[in-house]
Amino acid sequence: MSFKELFSLILHVISSWKVIVTFVAMIMIISFAKYVTVYTKKPGKDKKAKKAAVVKAPAPEGEAKSEEGTSSEA
């Protein structure tokens, strides 16, 4: 088998749709496997910091009384 025939055979094998689809599938699987192995979750926030953010400060007394008086309609 001469070099010219060998080159022609290699070109036919590489241009085959089965080889191309297999190569693309392998690349996608390897990329996904690498993503799964490297993935790390972001560190969670401190529970005390979350709880402090949720709790609201009480409203001043003057504002609370004025809201009660305006909400009653006759």
How helical, in percent, are the residues? over 70%
The gross shape turns out to be: rod-shaped
The overall average pLDDT, rounded, is 80
Order of helices and strands: HHHH
Structural class: mainly alpha
Largest sheet: none
> End-to-end distance, in Å?
104 Å
> Low-confidence parts, pLDDT < 50 over ≥5 residues?
none
> For the CA atoms, what is the radius of gyration?
34 Å
DSSP summary, beta strand count: 0
Into which percentage range does the β-strand content fall? under 5%
- Count of alpha and pi helical runs: 4
TL;DR?
72% of the residues lie in helices and 0% in strands. It is built from four helices and no strands. The model has no long low-confidence stretch (mean pLDDT 80).
How does this model look, in words?
The chain is an all-alpha fold and 74 residues long. The protein is 72% helix and 0% strand. It has helices at residues 3-14, 17-38, 47-54, 61-71. The chain is rod-shaped and about 100 Å long. The model has no long low-confidence stretch (mean pLDDT 80).
Question: Which key phrases capture this entry?
Answer:
single chain; 74 residues; mainly alpha; 4 helices; 72% helix
Question: How do the strands and helices of this protein lay out in sequence?
Answer:
Blueprint: H1 3-14, H2 17-38, H3 47-54, H4 61-71
